[in-house]
Write the structure tokens for this entry.
Amino acid sequence: MSRVLIIGCGGVASVAIQKCCQVSEVFTEICIASRTKSKCDELAKKLEGKTSTKITTAQVDADDVNQLVELIKGYQPELVMNIALPYQDLTIMDACLICRVNYMDTANYEPEDINEPEWREIYEKRCKEEGFSAYFDYSWQWAYKEKFEKAGLTALLGSGFDPGVTQAYCAYALKHHFDTIDTIDILDCNGGDHGYPFATNFNPEINLREVSAPGSYWENGRWVEIPAMSIHREYDFQEVGKKDMYLLHHEEIESLAKNIPDVKRIRFFMTFGQSYLTHMKCLENVGMLSTEPVLYEGKEIVPIQFLKELLPDPATLGPRTKGKTNIGCIFTGKKDGQDKTYYIYNVCDHEECYKEVGSQAISYTTGVPAMCGALMLLTKKWEKKGVFTVEEFDPDPYLEALAKYGLPHKESHTPVLVD
Ligand code: NDP
């Protein structure tokens, strides 16, 4: 019997909300709150009569701590699920601390304005000290660890697929298959086709920022940074086939490097088709990916935000997308003194997801783990106080819940390795 406040009502949140409503014995009451209340009302209406979860809706600007505090105090939830954007992570964590409520999200903090001087100074120091230049990193949220511990609260960071399930796969591999893990390759393959020449599968601004940035990986205790898309491999994915994939920086590498003892190398690869890459390069070259405001006919516009308006809304890709995703981790390491390899992954079908919840598989593979992360906290299967990423908890009940609610894993003990 739990009351949960869900902030955001976009592609990922709408899947998570529908999934919460499938587990109404735990999620007895939810409030959907977002910037645009009409979207929350629309979803609440769609779910009317289909669930015994009691749904209410609210309008909130999650950039404003005072508005959040008022909302949380009025609703009195046990947990706040932040499924808005990474820009709101810190304001929502602040509000949770003030109101003494547990917190979770699906992506680590990134500032909306990367030219804000106070943030920029810390960022540039971190680039020099740590050796990677992504705009997002865990330091901002890890800084809340003591505050959450002292308040007796839990903050669960990044319970989507990647980050999220990929880290649970690492914890699972370490718990059941290895004494020591030497290398981890996280492979994120989207074999889906939506028929558009160019569209992103989740929020375009966050997605394009991520993939146009330099790549990096962790090796022998330090970051190695490379120009964007400069390491390419081909891999033959089960149930999808051969795809080109590129090494990217990705947030879970940072926490895994801390939490998987003695790991020597962690890399992250994502598949991209040639059309996507050509469009992205062109948009980048003409300045459309810039986050710097420009003056147009007397009005300031941010190019990447304007581009978001032009691109298809990821939430509308569902009915058009065919094919499957295959996301997982390949490990090398040792068990009982012997060398060992292991691959654990999930395959998800875009059309099946659409049939079930009206979304494509990217929103589905993120929304289901968001619900499962919340389930772990609400049922007290995960109970530590402080700020944690997914691999810091027992992976078994989480993987069990993922399988039950739509994302079962498969495994291979003889995978083809990535060179
Ligand atoms: P969308 O853009 O579809 O949805 C974002 C939602 O947040 C919208 O409802 C939006 O409201 C709302 N929102 C934005 N700003 C505010 C604000 N200031 N106050 C209140 N509400 C706000 O994004 P997605 O659903 O694609 O992504 C959601 C999250 O999931 C992101 O953080 C993304 O990084 C993460 N993600 C994580 C993945 C993983 O595997 N871990 C994979 C994919 C995404 P409005 O409707 O008014 O715009």
